[in-house]
Amino acid sequence: MKKILPGGVEKASLNNQNKIKNILLGFALFFGVIQIQAQESNLQLQGTVADTVAQYVYLQKFHNKMFTTIDSVKVKDGNFSFKTKVKIPELYGLSVNTESSPLYIFLEKGPITVKLNPKKYYSSSIVEGSASQNLFDTYRKTKDLEISKFITENPKSIVSAYVLYRNWSYRLSPEQITQNIALLDKSLQNTTYVKELKELVTVLNGLAVGKKAPDFTSTDPEGKPVRFYENLKGYTLVDFWASWCGPCRKENPNIVAAYKEFHDKGFNIIGISLDKKKENWIKGIQNDNLTWLHVSDLLFWNSAIAKLYGVRAIPGNYLVDSKGIIVAKNLHGEELQTTLKSLLGQAN
Question: pLDDT: is 33 or 337 the higher one?
Answer without folding.
Answer: 337
